[in-house]
Each structure stands twice: as structure tokens, then as C-alpha cells.
Amino acid sequence: AYDGSVSAISPLLRVPRPYALAMHALMVKHHLGLRMSTDPPDDFNFMQAAKTLESSAHRALTEHGKVLFDTVCNYELSIGKSIVLRLPASPQAVQSYAVRHAKPTLLYWGGTQEVMHTFELCFRISDAGAVIFDGVKLVRREMVEDYVDSIVWEGKTLADEFDVEKMSFAAHLDFRSNDIFGEMSTRREPGDIFERGEVVVEEPWETKYVDVAANLDALDEGSSNRQTQSLRLPCGQPHEEAKTDSQLHRLVAYLNRNL
């Protein structure tokens, strides 16, 4: 299945990938001990990962590929006991391979191309009636993939895999930095919103969202190293859209829907 016609769950990213890529990742990860910066930090279990590839092996592997895969699995089960690998060869097999791969497809530059997070702005009301923006919560996550459809988490699917509770602005930054492509998403400056931890609006009923939006722009900074984030208000309106509307008291508008 060198052309991507069969997919399997990646043993590293745990998302659907072309079978050839998933098998390649299994062998390289285990036998060479190599890892990418995007790999999960947890321990790698070869046999558990191999199970995700076994079900499609009859459609994705050549006869030689099946023998090699079975031999490697048996080697793992025997905890390193020496096993002899025998692969039958013939001129016909070589010719068949040459015809099949006359126009090879390069898959190894593919994979996850972008991760997109959508966060919802959170607030609380002080005893004096001030609105205090003090956190966000993850409401949607999407991974844009090569060769397969984008993978979207939201609602129950999101809650099953990720923390969807309210997080502080600093915790939001940590969440992004620990996700894939997050290395360049952790830039901070003295006194920024991540250090202050909150934005206080003393007179919310007299304040338009456009008047405070600039303080929240860092939560809606767009793309950084193939990781994109967007901020939305509790009423569902995007931050970028709301901050350009100078006619309505947007702060009041969405507070009325959430109180």
C-alpha cells in the first residue's frame, strides 16, 4: 500500500495515516530508538502499537512484508531470542516489484500539517460588579493532515481526549506549548496578559468590547509554527469580528446571554 490506498492508526500520533507511514514509524521508533519532537513522551509499547497494523496487513503488505512483520513481532514476543528470517526470492518477484514501483510515491514528507485550537473566553463577576476576564477553555481542536481528512475534536469527543475545563491564561500558554508545533508559541513579555493573569473591566455596562479587545489579542494571535489559535466570546462570536464592531456594547451583549 505504498500509494496510501490503505490507512492505519499511527503508533506515534494515534491518528489515521497511510499504512506505509504507520509501519515505517513502528519500525524506526522501535529498532532505531529514534523520536521526533512531536512524539508523545510516554513509553512505547511495540506489541500494542503493532496490533493497530495487524488488521490491515493482508491488504497492505506484500508476502515478503508479511513475513518480515511476523518475524519482528515474534522476535519481540521472544524478548530478543535469535530468530532466523527467510525470504524466498525469484527473478519474477524482482520484476514484479520493479513494475509496481515504476512511479514511486513519496509519502515521508507528509503528516500533520497544522493544528488549530479554538478557545472560548471565560470571565467572572466581582462583588463590585466588575467583569474580570481570567481564563479560557478549549472548545475545538483540529489537525490538518496529508492524505486523509482533517481530524476534529469538539463536544464529547474533545472532552474525552483533552482538558476542557477553564484554564488560566498562563496554563493556556503551557497547553499550546506542549501540543505539537508548540515550540514557538510560548513567547512572553514582562507584564503581558499571561503574567497579569486577568483583564478587569470596572464598568462593563458602559464599556464596549472594542475598548478592551486589544488586551486580549495575544489569545488570538493566529498562526505560529504551524499551530493556529482563535479566540471566541461566550456568545460564539469570534474575537477578531467583535473587536471591529464599535457600534454595539458587545460586553453587555454577551453578558446578557450568559448571566
Please provide a brief summary of the model.
By secondary structure, this protein is α+β, with helices and mostly antiparallel strands. The chain is built from 11 helices and 8 strands. Helix 1 packs antiparallel against helix 2.
SS-based class: alpha+beta
Gyration radius, to the nearest Å?
A: 25 Å
Helix content: 25-40%
Q: How much is the average pLDDT? A: 79
Uncertain spans, ≥5 residues at pLDDT below 50? none
Could you walk me through the main structural features you see in this protein, from its secondary elements to its overall organization?
With 259 residues, this protein is α+β, with helices and mostly antiparallel strands. 34% of the residues lie in helices and 20% in strands. The protein contains eleven helices and eight strands. It has helices spanning 19-32, 46-54, 57-60, 63-77, 91-100, 156-161, 169-178, 193-196, 209-212, 239-242, 250-258, and strands at residues 7-9, 16-18, 112-125, 131-145, 151-154, 199-201, 222-224, 227-232. Strands 3, 4, 5, 6, 7 and 8 form a six-stranded mixed sheet that branches. It has a two-stranded antiparallel ribbon with strand order 1-2. Helix 1 packs antiparallel against helix 2.
